[in-house]
Amino acid sequence: MRKTKIALIACVKEKSLHPCAAEDMYLSVDFKSWLKYAQNWEADLIFILSGKYGLLELADVIEPYDFNLNDQPHSFRLEWSDQVLKTLALHCDLKEDQFILLTNQLYAEYLLPHIGMVGMPMDIK
User: Fold this and answer.
1) Residue 43 domain boundaries
2) Domain count, the chain
3) Could you tell me if residue 101 is inside a domain?
4) What is the pTM of this model?
5) What is the DSSP string of the chain?
6) If you average pLDDT over residues 56-80, what whole number do you get?
7) 111 in a domain, yes or no?
């Protein structure tokens, strides 16, 4: 049986000034290249890891925000990761499906121990 391929992409600081779909909210060249990478990898599911909103589907409509998970304390990042994992588990099998994380270590640190097959092809700063 073929495993589902799931891409998790980090949000970025550069955002639209108006509410829109999550895939259109993030404006940086980096974000666009990570999204293209996930599409070229032929991910079955692509999610965005948002410091404010948690796990986002590309079509989720969100408001602009200024919040950086990298600046949050350990306890917040741990709780954020728990919520992301709970939501992600509704869409896939965390231990059996195949993941790529297009994110930095802080976004990934508490997710990685709970994901079975994972690759981090880029070290995003």
Assistant:
1) 5-119
2) 1
3) yes
4) 0.93
5) -PPPEEEEEE--S-B-SS-EEHHHHB--HHHHHHHHHHHHTT-SEEEEEETTTEEEETT-EE------GGGS-HHHHHHHHHHHHHHHHTTS-TTTSEEEEES-HHHHTTTGGG-SEEE--S---
6) 96
7) yes
